[in-house]
Amino acid sequence: MSRFTNALVVSPLADGKTWVVLRPFGYDVGDLGSDDTVEVSIGFCTDFASIPRPFWILLPRWGKYGNAAVIHDWLYWDQSRSRRAADDIMLQAMGVLKVSAWEKFPIYWAVRALGWIAWYRNQWDREAKLNRVIECEGLKSTQESERPGLFIRTWHHYVSGQ
Fold it and tell me: How far apart are alpha carbons 49 and 67 in whole angstroms?
């Protein structure tokens, strides 16, 4: 049976949008003993669910689906699995968390339809030598994410080739 391996422990960065994973966190995919585990690196920076602000009244960035969103963010960053597999794992993880159907299916179908934007953004960030895994030793509450916003990242990618 799928399960989360540990409690999610995070700390916010000063930008108010980014959170850093501070303790080992992962997800066992599929049946017990399948040896298929997603391990999120300590220091990984997440924004939880990338839900546009107008929809926050119904689906905030953080909700019952928060742990699944962090696993999904990691899979999109790591890209060791296909985008489809990452989306399916998130759906499965939301089931483990007992997220209601009215929340999990719109989130799932939104990432199926629009997740390619985040998928390519992560590729561009890696090409530009940006890392979403930071050093946690000496982490200060005033530290901000060095990751540029989506529009800036897209501009840099197409204009300067980074």
Answer: 10
